[in-house]
Amino acid sequence: MKQIKSININKQDLPATSSIRTLSIEGDSGSEFLLQVFNSSQQFYNFNTRTFSSTSNSQSMVKGRISGSSYRKAIKFPATTGNIYTILVIASLDKDTEFSYTSRYSESFTITQVGNSTLTFTPLSATSSKYGDMPTSITSSASPTSVSVVEKSLNWDLPGALSDTNGFGLRLTRQPIDTDWYFTTTETVNGTVSSSTEVVVDDLTDLATGMHVTAVSAGSLVGTPTIKSIDIGTKKLTLSAAQSFNDNITLTFQARGSSVIQKAIGANIDFSNFNVNVVSAISAELTKTVHTTASGNDIPLVGTYGISGGGFVTMSGVGMKNTDSNTVQVVTAGNTDGSILTEETQLVKAGTKMYFKGSTLTVSVANTFTINSHPSADRIIYLNLDNFITPGVSGS
Predict the structure, then answer these.
(1) Which pTM does this prediction carry?
(2) All domains of the chain in start order, with CATH
């Protein structure tokens, strides 16, 4: 008996674009077989036209024969998404051919075709009322199978709120770093947990070691535990700190930074340009004008939005006392009026331009990051503004 010894083709997911892959069948010279390719849409591959159709005929079944030691056939896959392709090889028993490695007389395997996925990058704050309109998100769409590297430029202006209630500016406390970027997902607890580091969840989709548990839908959370290990068979998570959870509550998880995000969703995104040694964020200069001549600690201004009280902001200007301790203590907010209360008594004339340092109306974030691969489905990546920007306060 002649023997077919191996069947080889690239079985990785197909992109949404048209592509060609070569099937290689290795074995004894003269080995004969039947070859057919069909998809999950019940269409058959026509080896003459190199297209798929619902019609099965003699052109959709190849009678192949190994010459020398191998047989090769290029298969063209169309531009589409959502199909699963089956490649079927049947040994021709009537031609004295069998498989050398199995007792079966047919072999089949599948290849999945996936569509493009979109990564969305957006800034987010838990204190959104302290901000104005957020800038437009950055998006990137590509096939999860693509090996092309995409570099994205980020240039966001993050405005503070313009209202008497929340218009106390934004304080840039440090530079944004890799782990300020995060992906978040939720999962449901399966079974009550009492003072244990082990918890079973309903689904493991997008969960990975290193992710933080950041919130619970009911009850309380001890600290911010991380996932130390995952038992795929039992869907059991081992956390870094013991917790008590009720059955069916929802846990919120965050994958923080490039490496944990990749483990969670399979997207290779390089945020290494965001680090403490790179200036990615700057505070816009904040200036105001003295409304009426003031003598003392209470200085009326032509608008105060952007100035924070609480002793965080220093000031300068003609006639101002510019000592280190001369900070803004209290802000009475106003769009075209308002006032500030300073530590030091001042004598400033109407129309004097004042410069404030320590808070601003706008924090600008500009840098680049690289996308080396996309996830299998659309995902959102957030930049946690609360890690490096603190909203100002009235100080009263």
Answers:
(1) 0.85
(2) 2-112 (2.20.130.20), 120-176+274-377+390-396 (no CATH), 178-265 (2.40.30)
